[in-house]
Amino acid sequence: MSVIANVARFGGVSALAVALSLTSPALADDGRRFTLDIPSKPLLAALADYAAATGVQLVRTGGDRIAGRSRAVSGRFGAEEGLKAMLAGSGLIYQFTGPRTAALYPIGGVMPVQLAGEAEALDELQVTGESGAGAPGGAPGSFVVTSADIARKNPQDVRDLFGGEPGVQVGSSIPLSQKVYVRGVEETNLAVTIDGSAQNNKVFHHNATTYIDPGLLKQVRVDPGVAPADAGFGALAGSIAYETKDVADLLGHDRDGYGGIVKGWFNSNGGVFGDSVTTYGKQNGFEALGYFNWADGGRYKNGSGDKVAGTATELLSGLGKLAYESGEGHRFELNHERVHDDAIRPFRPNLGSVGRPGEPPTRDFKLDRQNTVFNYTDTSPGGWWDPKVVVAYSATKIKVPTFGVVGGVYFPDYNSAGRTSSLNGKVQNKFAFSLGDVTAGVDFRHDRARYADPNYHAIEKMTNVGFYTQARLEPIERARLSFGGRVDHQRFDGVNDNEGSEKNHTGVSANVSGEYDLIENLLTAKAGYSHVWAGIPLAENFILNPDWTYRNDTGKLRATTADNYSAGLVLKHSGFMVEGSLFKTQIENARNAKFRDAYFGPFEPGSVPGATWAPDLDTKGFEIGAGYEWETGFVRVKYAHIDVDINGRTADSDVGNYIATPVGDIVTISAVHTFVDWNVTIGGDIELAPEFDRVGRDSLTGERLKPFGAYEIVNVFAEYKPKLKYETTLRLDLKNLFDEKYSSRASYGQDFPSVTPLFEPGRSVLATATVKF
Length: 773
Hints:
By secondary structure, this protein is mostly beta strands.
């Protein structure tokens, strides 16, 4: 994982001695335990992993450069216990100078170091992280896309961000219409947050759900299926937590100063130029960070050399953060993040065309998503005091021209706009003791979905208040257990005052997951289960209908609920890793409202109110993976098999808009190696998708749908970091090396004969240059 080791600046040994004389090792024993899985590696890299996992800041004297290797540590440790195990035999000893700060110094002057003058911060390290072997404390299948992963992938969009994870598929080739599917389930059925802010982005089914710029991200955690209670309300099929960069990630902890990053790139496919500028600084506890990204270019060509209409790049995104941290550890942070896309897009941005004579191929879409978050935390918590307060507001707006048709001729008639928003927050505290910790809190959210055009407008809204608790314990040696629950009360308000349009109701959710080391430091068994109550989800903005009936003889609004099951094994030894898991998700009353008053189809015979059509979803399958990691690289192979059924029948990509999409079989292969002496890193990834013919039938014609086509995609890259005054990275990516013409498995419409899907870019050369100063 990418970390910046936390090092305080001391003038020399005398300052360190004063600090040591005023403190006690007992400060480190606050009862909390951490999952450490750090193989023997260069000591500097191992200490960086330790700091990232525990949050402990590491202090050293002078400018001594740490050399040698660490001892391997694997299991659950207290902060002091883990550091002691790692430093065994290194020639270094430690002294905790505060609850989250440890000083390192030599034993009797014997230390494997090279003296180098004045004190300096530890170098920024790019360390291969947990994403290949699961996330600590999660159910089977949980993983983290770390800072190191993001740097390695150099993602241009969300699909690149999740590359190499076959259990997560992203539909569409342009960011404005990309949707994330976790084990086949669309992301609005997961608890999605950005910096702790809940997202309510179900605006228009042809557009993206959560449109985010990967360049501003620090990491992403994905908990498929079983999610903890403190992940938030509505975690029907798991959770996704995006985290943006902080000043400490770029400058280092406990350091005052300033800096900046300038990044420029060029993509040959479409002639796309892009630039991003990041500036940051810290002084006397005050912090500020600004990030701005701009990209502009033409349409790309698919694997057949044909330009794809509506795929030009016109992107603006940004992030601003202000923070203050007192000497006592009280930290206040305010950030605002925004993404804006204003360009000509396909008439329906997530597909090529639907074969309607005279329909324009493109129209102008304007999408704006914003996220504002206030956070309070205590960076020096003790025992039963580790509070967190979040107050946030998120909103997404889409504006698009609506066309009229006269005599088969289309003409712009009026503009339509959809807007979702969420005012949300939480207050919680983490109680730490010898067996682990317990988090308890209350959260709230007030969500609105609004559609408006010159002819009518409609609004749905809901308010939810939830009480939750989640325990993460090590009840016996070699066992880790996480369990918790939520009680939520929701008020739902429909678009009108008809019977059934208002509902007040309460539900209970519960989860449990655990792992046990069958063979210590070798084989671990994992399992998890959750039952989730999610109230009544809001409908998509662009299908809100003021004439809806929410309850009649054939249907009524019911709460959406889910049950998730998973179990797996993980084997690790000397850099080798093999893992496998089975999973199943069942969602009942997965709301999929239709604009028209009645929906006629194979899923629900007869007439069902458009506002209430709520099918049942079943996804099941397995994931397996294997890999080997060495000091300067890794190789990983992963395979996922995912089946998706709606009301007992094979799902199609149309219900995939907001419920789930067919996936089938996906294989990914990733490999990276760094030539340390040359400062050169090379790597690549492969995605294999065999033909998938487990398809359903057209709901109108009854004809069997088309199989999903097979594809094999190869991407490679080379990166060079020359030794210059400022940290410089030069990189060349070759994407879709063999110029394959294909649509990603989760892209809409491939199974419908009348639809031309949106094809991915053909061969692309991406050149990137980054300078950090």
